[in-house]
User: Fold these one by one.
Assistant:
Number 1:
Amino acid sequence: MKTSNPVAENTPQAPLRVRQLSHGFKTPDGSTVTIFDKLDFCVGHGEIVSIVGRSGAGKSTLFNLISGLLTPQSGEISVGRRPDGGPGRIAYMLQKDLMMPWRTVLQNALLGIELYRKVRPDDIARARQMLARYGLGAVADAYPHSLSGGMRQRVALTRTLLVDPTLVLLDEPFSALDYETRLALEDDIIALRAQSGTSVVLVTHDIEEAIAMSDRVILLGGRPARIEDQVLVELTTHGPRNAVSAREAPEFRGYHARVWNGLRGNVTSRDPQDLAQSNTLAGAMHD
Ligand SMILES: Nc1ncnc2c1ncn2[C@@H]1O[C@H](COP(=O)(O)OP(=O)(O)OP(=O)(O)O)[C@@H](O)[C@H]1O
Ligand SMILES: [Mg+2]
């Protein structure tokens, strides 16, 4: 089965549109380090995009800007509406899991909902169901200090997904998980997109994970950070694409080599079709 790419629509309706984004930080000596200088980037409906880049490239900063935790120095970030016309919603799973120690696992999972409306009984039922699905049913009423790092990450993921977002930002969501759980959660994210058309942007240091999960892998690098390469991932899988079938696809190694080389500062083997598409995207940003 050949998977096809939803090409990111660069329209005001796109789930996420970042235009001419610039931001920098003050250093202790008073000078400014520019992290982004007129960055353009958009995410299509139901698209899964991975961002890879060296430590310090600016990946978390980009998420902090998109989510509104940081205010950009200039540029525009817009979140598209739902297909029914309702406002779009971003859910952000931070790199740190940020559990509140005085709240139970269930209460931590419900925190995202609580931030924008009153919790309803059906939310509690959904939260318990999702926690059980992630192997956390037995600890739903326990406090976070008794959980392992991987369990805490799964609570944080539950909290993120429960808010019924149109766009999910995941900053290294699976880094503390064992391989088997990691693959299961990768499948959950892929299924989420299929079921509800949610768009996902994922930061990961794991190239395999980036390729297996994504329609597009973006390589962020340099200072100021720019999109150094953009790989459209098309995989021929046996049956539906999932975390395992994707890794077994014949094209997988080729994509892996390209991203790996890119991370080492060596962007070479560009597929002409991919390049044409990414150029189209970049060009369309300046309409
Ligand atoms: N609040 C801040 N004040 C000053 N500098 C910051 C701040 N936040 C981030 N930076 C700097 O901005 C750069 C980008 O940091 P960021 O955390 O976005 O990188 P990253 O790509 O997420 O790295 P990692 O892969 O290690 O998580 C780094 O040089 C970092 O030191
Ligand atoms: Mg980071």
Number 2:
Amino acid sequence: MIRALFMGSAAFVLAVVAVAASGPAWDGVRDLSDRLTGAATQTPAPTSTPTVPPPPTATPTPSLPPNPQALHRWDALPVHYCVEETGSGFVSIAEFKKLTDRAFAAWGVPSVDDGVCRGPDVQGDHVNEIGWGTPPGAPPPGSRVTEAGVTLTTYSECTANCRADDPVHLVEADIIIEQSPPRQFRTPDCLYSTLLHEIGHFLGLGHLPAPAVMQAETASCLTRLTPADVAALLARYGSRAHPAG
Ligand SMILES: [Zn+2]
């Protein structure tokens, strides 16, 4: 699925391509039991000292909500990303980076900007690269439809002994933003709109009906999340997310 820019009627179509990870399923059950074992050994039951102070009331990190529908999401937060310096688009890399950070902040899922990517933009390196380029499968020049960006995600799906709250999780997401869209779309607002949409895919969201930012096609460069976008996000991340809706 690709986001495209329509000439004339001016519609965007954004897309995500999901690629299943080829590695083995992770063993979530063992992770959970390890944690439980560790907690038990750290807080042995007092034997004869009723005045033992209560355990520290440190605020635990809220867990992700149950995920019975196996929605794609990151299970380890914060998510990390880096911005490619290679390639050139219609704004500077500094501006591109600023808009990317702003779009992540709008979704409100804990995230870390790791700065400039250290290596090439490739899938399979478990580095989440965001940068300029030409989305694969772009329609030919002169077409009414032009892709604005694409997100390539890789996920791991549990196949045995699965935890009910984490049957699937993302392991990599790379975003390619069209570096030379039609002139009328070469604005910071349209770039931000595309980044906002693609980062929604980066976070695991699929397409939603209009007027959501996550709609597959749009005639304008939407820059604000709608209640539908927020609901889709919260279904995945619950109280770990603080979207600006
Ligand atoms: Zn899309």
